[in-house]
Design a protein that fits this description.
4 copies of one chain form a homotetramer.
Chain A (H helix, E strand, L loop, with lengths): L1 E6 L4 H12 L3 E6 L9 H4 L14 H6 L6 E4 L7 H9 L3 E4 L9 H8 L13 E2 L2 H10 L2 E3 L3 H15 L9 E6 L14 H4 L4 E2 L7 H13 L6 E6 L6 E8 L6 H11 L6 E3 L15 E8 L4 E8 L3 H15 L16
Parallel strand pairs in A: 1-2, 1-3, 3-4, 4-6, 5-6, 7-9, 11-12
Antiparallel strand pairs in A: 7-10, 8-9, 10-13, 12-13
């Protein structure tokens, strides 16, 4: 059995992590940490666990004390909060899976530019592996420090990787128009996230400046073999869960929808969690699952290809992929504990 | 392994049933029937199964042919559509679990009064058992024909049974004000169920005339030992899933909230799926699970007790309870395949 | 022209008030006050006004200074915040319309019991008039201090008044099961009001203890002529606007639905804003309007009558009724500025 | 007074039209036509009018008979249904404002290609004017046959016209990613439009093949002076109303956000209904109004400009713009009956 601890277990990603790990046949949860809810019963905060999970949230101080009980630490904290505990964990031989952004960017300068703070554990950056399982599986197996991808990057990179790998598109004109449910804004008490402010409305935000941009560019550049710049625009949609990424690019040659679908099917042929679907993906079909649905359509009139990917932002976009990474890192069957499908509605 | 067939597998309850049975460790699905989608792939209709469930929907005629392959037939059809196939199944020694209303009412006259059609298999009524597992477990074990309770009755009866069993309330003044998500209206193409007609609105419907009324009265009367009449008012709420039943009654003696909670906890002490919660239940905490959360509050000023129960209408209110009944009927552990919790959001 | 000021103009009720008064042909808005947004442009907070309302929010201190510019002060502040400015306004001869709870209850003891704080301007209570326009029009005409009814009380009292006025029901068994959209919780940054906490769920809250209870009882007792106690249970529904109140009571005599509808039609025959509808009311039909729809149904089996009323909590339940009261107090046509209907969707 | 008739008054656009015209100070509604609800009271279908609009829907045959009573006919029917009545109306000297697609495309061949049916009144195409008021005002004044723009085209063209007029962008790389509320799918009883199928999900549809594409291209080409092809992808969002169009293009020169905002402000400086906003538009701020909010952002890293526009699909995207066109055609003040703002929530 793998012993785990979760930092930030009362945020939305943390809760989803607790849900998955609680069902995982090879895992013991050793502690659930919460800054705001230390010493409260977890099932008083998330009452879906009422009668099923008898755990008291531990403070951050206490979490440090318990690092010696675990094999792997999941961190679901805001960026800038992972440095110290990651260092301590690694020193103790505890593997780290960080769901936040602190170890995703290879360059501490890029980190500083986009996140506005100094990276305080930059020596770990060379060892950390970007945990997009379908692309980096071999490196994931060997690392002790895993940077779990952001939700938007997961959807975007899975959508575009086959096109770039095969150099089928003009790398100068890639546009990602992404849409997310409100859980992506986290469980912070902000007026902008109130029901009556989000419901019955849609907006773009962070146009040209969202922090997931350099992460997408870094990883797509690796796939492509050259530096790539993209335009990325996230939107907020009145639903709890889900990300849809609509990706636009110009085909270099004439390729039909069918030809491209075959290329995608081949690219992901061994992947359990990525499905190339015939019709346009809908987030509901992957909601509550670790799946990514991808649809491809060539617009012959403009010789542009539109790839649409759908994930659940809290599962494949956060906690599910984190557990998928854990499974790889600990040499378990990759799908262990992740075989649940969407209920459909 | 238990071999099963599902009639009406493309309705919402049918789909939930497929979802649960597909994960059930002791079940093989032998066929999925659909009147409207015969010969279509199931995963083209419900794309959450894309790549995971390779089944073609069979016509009703074909379902009849396959009855000899199965041990139990689940029927998720509109009322009035179960008579013939139930008869045939029972003759072949196949057990029947009907999620519809055709075998819930003991009296064919009551059936005719409320459903407006003649019961065409009334000889089966004396054998059919009302499958509210927590109350009728012993009878369920022995029956071949199980009438799975309606969604509103499940929530209502679980909420009120302890009060009536212990004769703590005035049986003349029981009011059930219930609220349901829109999936309760089914997957029929009706203007009243369109997104833009349901969203951002709430309404009562079927006031004093909803067909679940006689079912609630019949079962509560059995618990109480005398005939009971109640007022039942359902409401439509803009959400996909969930039922909340707010039940009002007048206490005969002075009892505190705490005393009543203890009575409820004792009443349901051996029940895995019924939880007496400290705060007011919310449907989100049971959504996607087979649980029923019950909250109790005495209004001392009026000596009235308000009991609120929350279920997922498609799980404990339909498919989950149907599987719970199957587990009982086939002497499996009652919770098999039903241990999933709500994801919380 | 009537010169007005609004305290608390950036809350949801305050904003609705600004919207209505901005369109009102006989009103000049002299100031919009906001504690949290003092010195900000109003149209930066509520961008629906972008380009149409060029006003800077004034601080509370500045609002005091401007009392001499106005004929009437609207107060849309939390309870306990209205005492001082009301006193000052009345001294200056400015009429006050308080949308909060501070002047609704006749007894300062009842106020203290339910609101948990001492009333600091109790000498005004004898002069304040409860502004449910349809019932108290004559008193409203003459008062300088108007307590605008709560949202739940407006829906509840309008639903039950005809039954109690005519003594048609057992006054001991009145139950009000009410449902509200989330804007009723106000524009405060609370986790409980976040989109992802409210969406796809329904719950009851404040069972037996909601502060609107004594207000409903006080006014219904006046209508009935004797003290009445009711049970009142509010629920939170995932929609922005709307209140539905489902009211249960036992008929003393046998009366048909049709007879009762005629009694209601007669009772409200001169009322522009109250409509007795044939089918069950839906909040969408009154959303964004000052109307109240009332439906009546006798459950002959139990001789109980169920009356359902629907209002928009921010209009007839707050700002719209406040303007209706202003119209009455200033001898304008009562419907001035309030003739807008719901857009339907 | 202008006498008007409405064909298709019970669809969502038709109902919005009835709402606006009912409040319009210079209009008499002479008939409301409905194919499906002929002879029913309008306020039984749309109960927001209960007690306020006493009209019986007339059949199509009867509508023909009443053409001689009116000055202008609004047609809110599906495409292909406007030919005959338009011809008849024009022959009688009745002006026509068609909210459908039948007279928007200049070429009957393009019409046939995209709509799949033969145009049966192609002789009228040379006279019909595309009624995007802000761009075609002078032609609108003089026409008898007005093609009211589609909802997506209205948002898209208003967003892109200034860039193309000033030739600031590469016309080969224009991408429009648009999002619409569900009312855009109309009031047809289709499973895809059911609450439980749309709620809590987002999807793209009609990728590369949506019928609004040629309309957008035709009008943008006129603005630009050369033929333009664009990629247009609509999405379905779980909300009733609203369209957000996120438009991407590559700047030819380096221009700052501020410079472009000034160009837009100048371009629309005389327009009442178009507002250039400082922050990213949200559909809620224009919901229920005839306004279009436009936000502009230059992504300096890629020298791309992202323009986001927000409208209410039923108002500026349909009925509101139709009335704006009527006002222009009848030489009324253009804003008459259209000055209502969004309520904000």
């Amino acid at each position: 059995m793998i012993n785990v601890g979760i930092m930030g277990a009362t945020g939305y990603a943390g809760e989803q992590l607790a849900w998955i790990l609680n069902n995982h046949s090879k895992v013991n949860i050793k502690f659930l940490n919460s800054h705001n809810y230390a010493d409260m019963n977890y099932d008083e905060i998330y009452k879906n666990y009422y009668g099923f999970l008898d755990e008291v949230c531990v403070s951050t101080e206490e979490a440090f004390n318990r690092l010696n009980l675990i094999h792997v630490l999941f961190i679901a904290l805001p960026h800038g909060k992972s440095f110290e505990i990651t260092k301590k964990a690694l020193e103790l031989g505890v593997k780290v899976i960080d769901l936040g952004a602190d170890f995703r960017l290879d360059s501490e300068d890029v980190y500083k530019n986009w996140y506005g703070i100094k990276h305080e554990y930059s020596s770990a950056l060379k060892d950390s592996v970007y945990g997009l399982c379908e692309l980096n599986r071999e490196c994931i197996k060997k690392t002790n420090i895993l940077a779990n991808p952001g939700c938007y990057p997961t959807a975007s990179i899975l959508a575009l990787a086959p096109l770039l790998k095969h150099k089928l598109i003009d790398s100068k004109n890639i546009i990602i128009d992404a849409k997310s449910g409100v859980s992506g804004a986290g469980r912070a008490a902000k007026i902008d996230s109130l029901f009556a402010e989000c419901n019955e409305s849609i907006k773009a935000y962070g146009i040209g400046s969202h922090r997931h941009t350099p992460e997408i560019e870094q990883e797509l550049s690796k796939v492509f073999g050259e530096d790539i710049m993209i335009s990325f625009t996230p939107h907020l949609v009145p639903m709890n869960r889900g990300i849809l990424a609509t990706c636009y690019s110009n085909l270099i040659d004439n390729l039909s929808t069918e030809e491209l679908m075959n290329i995608y099917r081949e690219f992901y042929k061994d992947e359990y969690f990525v499905k190339i679907v015939n019709e346009s993906p809908e987030t509901r079909w992957v909601r509550g699952s670790n799946l990514c649905h991808i649809g491809i359509k060539v617009d012959e009139r403009t010789n542009r290809v539109i790839v649409v990917s759908a994930i659940d932002n809290l599962v494949k976009g956060a906690a599910g992929q984190a557990v998928q990474n854990m499974n790889i890192m600990f040499d378990l069957k990759e799908t262990t504990g992740l075989e649940f499908l969407s209920m459909g509605l």
